[in-house]
Amino acid sequence: MTTTYRIAPSILSADFARLGEEVKNVIDAGADWIHFDVMDNHYVPNLTFGPMICQALKPHAKTAAGVVVPIDVHLMISPVDALAASFAQAGADLISFHPDASGHVHRSIQAIKSQGVKAGLAFNPAEPLDVLEWTIDEIDLILIMSVNPGFGGQSFIDSALRKIEQARRLIEASGRDIRLEVDGGIKTDNIRRVADAGADTFVAGSAIFGQSHYKGVIDQMRVALG
Ligand code: DX5
Ligand code: ZN
Asked: Residues within 5 Å of ion ligand 2 by Cβ?
């Protein structure tokens, strides 16, 4: 079975003074999704952007041919439900949140899906996957953090590979079509190793936006994925 790989550039590392242009440029360079890192300076020690920025960027999230490019919102916030609803209304296509940031995980998943948006759970490096036993049939995405959330440009945490393998086994046992996304420290020289562990969707911020030629980096990632 051939795997469909997706590259999801994180705009956390984009030029915030030109976000619309950056979204357009990285889509022209071949991005499959736009990864939107939301931080509240409460759940994580950084503060980024809210639903209004998502709404402003939504018209830019499409290819030159007019094909919509999904906005993949990663909520590093607590509490979750109210802002998740605002991001759904602002045009998010997928919304993932950290189970340890919600007082009622199953209800937060339902709150996202009730808005017609795909729901995902995000797991920090020390967070076990146990909650998936009771939620895997409700979600569309599992996001494995390979850095501690809050900042771009960090180094990949190798223990994430074991968790990716475990998540892949759980997805296969569920028989459901769930995306397995990895976020943090993804580079052209480690993306193959992360794919071999079972990931199919790759968040990359500094590896892409830290270079002048976005297409060159994305093309290298695709070559590495084979
Ligand atoms: C949490 C953020 C970062 C970002 C990726 O800190 O979610 O992981 O998206 O940043 P890079 O690709 O620069 O590690
Ligand atoms: Zn993220």
From this structure: 37, 74, 183
Residue 147 near ligand 1, beta carbon < 6 Å: yes
* CB burial string 130-149: b at 16+ within 10 A, e below: ebbeebbebbbbbbbbbbeb
Tens of pLDDT along 70-103?
999 999 999 999 999 999 999 999 999 999 999 9
Q: How many other C-beta atoms can be found within 10 angstroms of the C-beta atom of residue 59?
A: 11
Tokens of 41: 């300076």
What is the C-alpha to C-alpha distance for residues 123 and 132, in angstroms, rounded to an integer? 10
pLDDT class for 3, splitting at 50, 70, 90?
Answer: confident
Residue 204 CA to ligand 1 centre (angstroms): 7
Distance (Å) of CA 124 to CA 34, 43, 53, 80: 20, 12, 25, 16
Q: Which of 78, 79, 59 is nearest to 69 (CA)?
A: 59
Provide Rg for the chain, Cα atoms.
Answer: 16
Residue 186 beta carbon below 6 angstroms from any ligand 1 atom: yes
Distance from residue 97's CA to the centre of ligand 1 (Å) = 15
| Cα–ligand 1 centroid distance for 74 (angstroms) | 10
The reply to whether ligand 1 has any atom less than 6 angstroms from the CB of 184 is yes
